[in-house]
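Design request, tokens follow.
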């Protein structure tokens, strides 16, 4: 299976169109959140991504309204919204969780979930599922510009418990392109460019 993955478009329509253009070579497209900026403009990028030529799986970012993302995705048969839920594409299991985990930003628009709530949702992750998460796992691809690790312990633990082969994440802009290993999984902080994975 060939996966095209990205994160943090933040209303960048040109980046969204580049993903659509590349999607003919993908079996699945994975978007790790932040289509909007401060909960404004998610439809600008999702309208474009709905024309991808492969199934699209997404999670919400901390800049995205989960209710809006769910409503938008209900209108597009090609995009599936994951949050504490999974999907099967061609016999490969995927599972997603969105938002900032745990909450660190005190803004009205910031969408965050506690480590406890994240762990409860991630308990449903199937064995060997590809994880799509907005927040990176704690300690891997999660270094902020000040050197602090701002990933999630619940996501890290779920990767190990589920024997996931791959975790696709974003959120920490200072770590775009960074990758590492957690358990059996390759972890990649994606950023808004095109990232390819074969599993």
């Amino acid at each position: 299976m060939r996966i095209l993955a990205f994160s943090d478009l933040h209303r960048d329509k040109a980046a969204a169109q580049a993903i659509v253009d590349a999607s003919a070579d993908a079996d699945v497209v994975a978007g790790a959140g932040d289509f909007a900026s401060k909960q404004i403009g998610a439809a600008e990028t999702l309208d474009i991504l709905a024309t991808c030529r492969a199934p699209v799986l997404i999670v919400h970012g901390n800049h995205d309204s989960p209710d809006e993302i769910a409503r938008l995705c209900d209108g597009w048969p090609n995009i599936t919204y994951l949050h504490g839920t999974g999907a099967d594409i061609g016999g490969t299991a995927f599972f997603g969780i969105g938002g900032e985990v745990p909450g660190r930003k005190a803004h009205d628009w910031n969408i965050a979930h506690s480590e406890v709530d994240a762990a409860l949702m991630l308990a449903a992750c199937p064995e060997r599922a590809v994880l799509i998460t907005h927040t990176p796992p704690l300690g891997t691809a999660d270094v902020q510009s000040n050197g602090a690790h701002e990933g999630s312990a619940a996501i890290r633990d779920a990767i190990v418990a589920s024997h996931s082969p791959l975790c696709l994440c974003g959120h920490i802009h200072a770590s775009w392109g960074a990758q590492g290993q957690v358990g059996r999984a390759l972890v990649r902080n994606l950023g808004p460019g095109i990232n390819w994975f074969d599993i």
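Comment from the thread starter after seeing the answer: thanks! Helices lie at 13-22, 42-49, 66-74, 115-122, 153-162.
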